[in-house]
Structure formats: structure tokens, C-alpha cells
Inverse folding.
């Protein structure tokens, strides 16, 4: 089996260094309706409703676990929609395979899973039917739908059953990953920016012309299509739509129960059989003899065993609620008598109640409703616009149907399209244009566009006078960069020959101190590329030099801080790495197995429908 260490590093870094990004906001309640099929897996279909519901559940899970809301754009940047789509496709493949071979788990196995799931337990640790029904309802599922999902998952686990790899118990791999994640570095960054000194370099015309003649092909402009187009955007249409107060009130009343959120507390809990034992443990924490995490380890409890997640106040036992409500982040509360014994709680985080008034949401609701109506109006315009185009209408004629904007575009193989047009389908659309308005194309963001080819300009090399300023900038920048390379080398030499207490004087340099940066760090001085190379410096007081566009960044490493294996934080992270490593290896095995099943299944994904759904979040 091939294990992708790079993929695992990326996963670990997202998991530990970007923790807190995952969640969702009010937009999940404001999703528009869409009944399109987003994918076909063999004979099975994945509906837009399935995709939206699964995406909302995935985002809701992270929101409840982390207590932080994010935008859909942030979720997209982390690949959450792709993960959801992949799970749905894999589920359909497995479902088909299970039916084909007649493999299924019975009711007893399903009930055992549900009864053991701590999500459905009350604080005494006993399964609660009320909590179970409430949780499933909040997830937007019926009980039989959820139980069928569990049945399919259990059946799939039989099909996907794999041996735990011995590599997941290899302490060398775990320590290597921990070192990679937890290593910190400190140093000095010296920057010298000469990019604004181009005019101080005398470059005569003959030298510029010589450079031009020697590099003619590098200045060639590819064959270029001159295109005109008319576009109707969802935003422009929405701005023309008026939403009445009654519509806003009705939407608020219909949806406020889904929008508002009670206050929630993220807590850890340790249960003791005897009150004296609980009191003694609390005293040890108070005087600094131990910590809450260390107590958990004494009882062989993992961080997951300790943590109850985010709970609303009425989900705590009655005797605990008053102290939890009056607590602050970091407080340790107890001992408090519970159904299981005497409990000590640690308050990790607090999520305030979110109960917005109609006035607070008025603008958001109005925007939501206007965008919904905009989509509907644009849907109705498409056929009318195509009929007008077929009858010989020009772009100006289309403005009677809606607020179309006329624009122009020069497109060739090196051109950069506007972000709203940057997608493969639009590029294929451009290659098919003729000298008359095309049929309407719907863009992934919901906008519609028609275009025509005005002219094709042959590939050519511009005359010297057209690009002489560009040539001057290029030549002067080369001289600046060469000067900076010389300065970098001489500066490093000065440091090498001076004592540590006598730092060389650096004329014109800006100096910054960076302490304990990790691999995820970046800012305007230390870009992610520079940081990556800083972690490649082999020893203290070594250098990394970076010269880009007339700016020198010279970094001197002053300290390397490796992780402390004895700290409670490190032990917790090592355990988490161990679990994630095992999970990743098993997922890789399952990935190859599922791919083998895919060989016999035709998969068709409607990316436009998916983009349309995501644009409405």
C-alpha cells in the first residue's frame, strides 16, 4: 500500500494549525431550493437536496464541536463540499455493491450502535430516547432514515473491514510527525527594497533594442479573439427587486426557530466515586500539584472521553446548571453530585446565545429573498432571451428583458479572465463563438451570458516602441536583483567574520525579530515560501536569502525549538497524531478499495449544478 505522507502532513497541519476554521453560519437556513440532480452513480442519482442536507450536517458537526462559525467561502477553501460529494458518491457505490451481493446488518446490530453512541446519552451516561429523537430531528432526518444510514454504514464496514496497520503503532513515525508539527524557529529578517530605484539605472536605447532583438519570441502575443458579450448577473437583477415588509416578517417568523441558538458551554468532566477523592483531586489542581488533563490520564481517559462537547444549559444535570451559567472560560467547577458520582468540570469555551430580532436580520433576509427572486426571474428570462437572439436581436435589444451589461474581452492562451468567468465550461464556450450572439450560457454563479466573436487578431510580435517601457523595467530589475545578490553575499560574509555580540551595521535594511514561528506562519515579510525555506536551514545562525522583484529578504536563524515530549500538551497531541495516522492509513486502504469498485461504475458529476448550490449559501 502506498501511503501519502504529504497528504497526511497537510491534513495534520489543517487539523492542528487551522483548528477553529470549521463551522457554519446563518446561511444554512437561507439556502435556496434546487431540485437538480448533481451526480449520477451508475443507475443511482444524488439529488441537490441530498447534497445540501449532507453539507449542512457536515458543517453543523464542526460548528458544534468547535463553536466557531465560518463562511461558505472558507469551507470551500478547505474542500468541505468536495469531501461531502465524495462521501455521497462512495455511499452510492457501496450501497449498490451491498445490494448486488445481498449483504446487510440486522436490527440488533443497529440498535447496539445507537444505544452506545454517547451523543444520545444524558449526563448520567444512560441512553435517552428524548435526546435521540431531538438530535435526529435537528439533523433534519427521520428516525427510520437515520437507522437506515446506520445499517448501511455497518454493512459497509463488513465490506471495508481492514486489519490495523502495524505502522500506526510505530513511535518513530508518530514522533517524526510531532516534531514536524510542533517545531518552532526564531530569527532575524533583514529586508532591503530597491524596486523603486529602476530609474537610477542608465540603460540606453541601443541596449534595449539589442535585448529586444535577442528575445523576440518572448514578446510574442498569441492569436487573440476579440469578443463582445452581454451579461445579466444575479446581483444586478436582485438590486431591481423590491422586497415588501410582509415578506420579511413572514420569512422571519417561519425560520427564526432554526436561526436562533441557545447559549452553549464546552466542558470536560471527570467522575469520582467518592466525594473525598473528588475534593482531594480538586485541591491538587488548585495548589498546582497536578492538572485537569493529568487527572484524566491517571484515570486512563482520552481527551475525547473527557470532553462533553458543546451543551446547552438545559442539557446539564439540574444541580450543575447554576454554576455552569456563572462560570468563565478556564474555570474548574465542583465537586458536584451527579447520577454517576461526584464530578469536576472544566469550562473550555462559551458560545453566546444568538437570538436576533427581525430588525437585526432585516437586511440579510431582504437580500436572501431578492436573490431567490433574482434566480427565478433569470430562469424565466433564459428562454425569452434565446428566442429574441434566434429572431435576430442584438445585445442592446436584450436590455428590455433585464439589466444586461455589455462588455468586451480580448482572449488568448495567456489571458487572465475575470474571476466570475474563470471556469472550464466558459473557456469551451469561448472557443465555439461565431460572428453573431450565442445562445445563453448559465454561469456557475447563476448569472447568464451571451457572446459573439468580433474579430480574430493573428499572433504577432509588438514593435519595439510599443513595449520599450516594459523592456526597460525588465532590464533595470535584472540589474537591481544582481546588486541585491551581491549585497546578500557580502552581508552573510560580514556576519560570518564578526562575533555574535558585534552585529554588522546594515545600511538601508529594515530589521524584524521573529520568535517561535511554526510552519503555518506567514506575513508580508515572511511569505509561506520563505517560511518553508527557513525550516530547511540546517543549523543555528545559518541564512536563507530570497530576492524577488527588486526586494531582498535575508533571514538568519537564531534558535530551533523542538517539542517537549514530557509536556501535557505534547502527550495529548501525540495521542491525536496516533489516532489520525491510524485513521488516515485505513482511509487510504479504503480509498484504493473503493476505486476498484468504481472501475465498473459510471460516474457523471454536474459541476454547474453544484456551483449554483454553493453560490446560494
Amino acid at each position: 500500500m502506498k501511503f501519502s505522507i504529504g497528504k497526511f502532513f497537510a491534513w495534520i497541519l489543517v487539523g492542528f494549525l487551522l483548528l477553529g476554521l470549521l463551522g457554519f453560519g446563518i446561511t444554512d437556513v437561507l439556502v435556496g431550493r434546487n431540485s437538480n440532480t448533481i451526480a449520477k452513480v451508475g443507475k443511482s442519482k444524488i439529488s441537490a437536496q441530498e447534497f445540501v442536507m449532507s453539507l449542512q450536517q457536515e458543517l453543523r458537526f464542526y460548528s458544534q464541536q468547535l463553536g466557531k462559525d465560518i463562511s461558505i467561502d472558507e469551507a470551500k477553501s478547505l474542500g468541505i463540499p468536495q469531501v461531502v460529494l465524495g462521501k455521497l458518491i462512495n455511499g452510492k457505490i457501496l450501497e449498490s455493491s451491498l445490494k448486488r451481493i445481498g449483504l446487510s446488518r440486522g436490527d440488533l446490530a443497529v440498535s447496539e450502535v445507537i444505544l452506545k453512541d454517547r451523543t444520545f446519552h444524558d449526563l448520567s451516561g444512560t441512553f435517552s430516547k428524548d435526546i435521540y429523537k431531538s438530535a435526529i430531528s435537528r439533523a433534519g432526518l427521520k428516525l427510520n432514515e437515520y437507522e437506515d444510514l446506520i445499517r448501511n454504514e455497518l454493512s459497509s464496514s463488513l465490506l471495508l473491514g481492514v486489519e490495523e496497520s502495524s505502522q500506526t503503532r510505530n513511535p518513530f513515525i508518530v514522533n517524526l510527525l510531532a516534531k514536524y508539527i510542533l517545531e518552532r524557529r526564531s530569527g532575524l529578517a533583514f529586508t532591503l527594497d530597491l524596486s523603486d530605484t529602476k530609474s537610477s539605472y542608465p540603460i540606453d536605447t541601443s541596449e534595449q533594442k539589442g535585448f529586444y532583438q535577442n528575445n523576440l519570441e518572448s514578446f510574442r502575443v498569441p492569436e487573440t479573439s476579440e469578443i463582445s458579450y452581454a451579461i445579466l448577473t444575479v446581483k444586478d437583477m436582485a438590486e431591481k427587486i423590491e422586497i415588501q415588509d410582509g415578506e420579511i416578517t413572514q420569512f422571519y417568523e417561519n425560520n427564526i426557530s432554526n436561526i436562533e441558538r441557545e447559549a452553549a458551554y464546552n466542558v470536560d468532566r471527570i467522575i469520582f466515586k467518592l466525594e473525598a477523592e473528588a475534593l482531594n483531586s480538586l485541591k491538587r489542581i488548585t495548589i498546582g500539584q497536578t492538572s485537569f488533563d493529568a487527572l484524566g490520564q491517571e484515570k486512563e481517559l482520552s481527551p475525547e472521553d473527557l470532553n462533553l462537547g458543546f451543551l446547552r444549559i438545559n442539557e446539564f444535570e439540574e444541580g450543575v446548571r447554576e454554576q455552569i451559567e456563572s462560570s468563565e472560560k478556564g474555570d474548574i467547577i465542583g465537586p458536584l453530585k451527579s447520577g454517576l458520582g461526584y464530578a469536576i468540570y472544566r469550562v473550555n469555551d462559551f458560545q453566546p446565545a444568538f437570538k436576533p430580532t427581525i430588525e437585526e436580520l432585516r437586511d440579510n433576509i431582504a437580500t436572501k429573498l431578492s436573490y431567490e427572486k433574482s434566480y427565478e426571474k433569470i430562469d424565466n428570462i433564459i428562454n425569452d432571451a434565446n428566442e429574441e437572439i434566434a429572431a435576430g436581436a442584438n445585445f442592446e435589444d436584450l436590455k428590455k428583458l433585464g439589466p444586461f451589461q455589455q462588455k468586451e474581452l480580448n482572449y488568448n492562451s495567456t489571458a487572465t479572465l475575470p474571476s466570475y468567468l474563470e471556469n472550464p465550461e466558459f473557456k469551451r464556450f469561448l472557443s465555439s463563438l461565431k460572428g453573431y450572439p450565442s445562445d445563453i450560457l448559465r454561469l456557475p454563479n447563476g448569472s447568464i451570458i451571451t457572446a459573439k466573436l468580433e474579430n480574430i487578431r493573428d499572433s504577432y510580435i509588438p514593435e519595439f516602441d510599443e513595449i520599450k517601457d516594459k523592456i526597460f523595467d525588465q532590464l533595470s530589475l535584472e540589474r537591481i536583483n544582481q546588486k541585491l545578490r551581491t549585497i546578500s553575499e557580502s552581508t552573510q560574509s560580514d556576519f560570518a567574520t564578526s562575533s555574535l555580540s558585534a552585529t554588522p551595521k546594515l545600511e538601508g535594511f529594515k530589521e524584524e525579530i521573529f520568535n517561535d514561528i511554526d510552519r503555518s506562519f506567514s506575513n508580508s515579510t515572511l511569505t509561506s515560501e520563505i517560511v518553508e525555506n527557513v525550516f530547511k536551514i540546517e543549523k543555528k545562525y545559518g541564512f536563507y536569502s530570497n530576492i524577488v522583484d527588486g526586494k531582498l529578504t535575508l533571514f538568519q536563524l537564531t534558535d530551533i525549538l523542538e517539542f517537549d515530549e514530557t509536556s501535557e500538551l505534547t502527550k495529548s497531541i501525540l495521542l491525536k497524531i496516533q489516532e489520525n495516522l491510524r485513521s488516515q492509513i485505513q482511509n487510504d486502504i479504503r480509498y484504493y478499495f473503493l476505486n476498484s469498485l468504481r472501475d465498473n461504475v459510471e460516474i457523471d458529476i454536474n459541476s454547474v449544478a453544484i456551483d449554483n448550490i454553493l453560490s446560494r449559501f
About this structure: The longest strand covers residues 341-351.
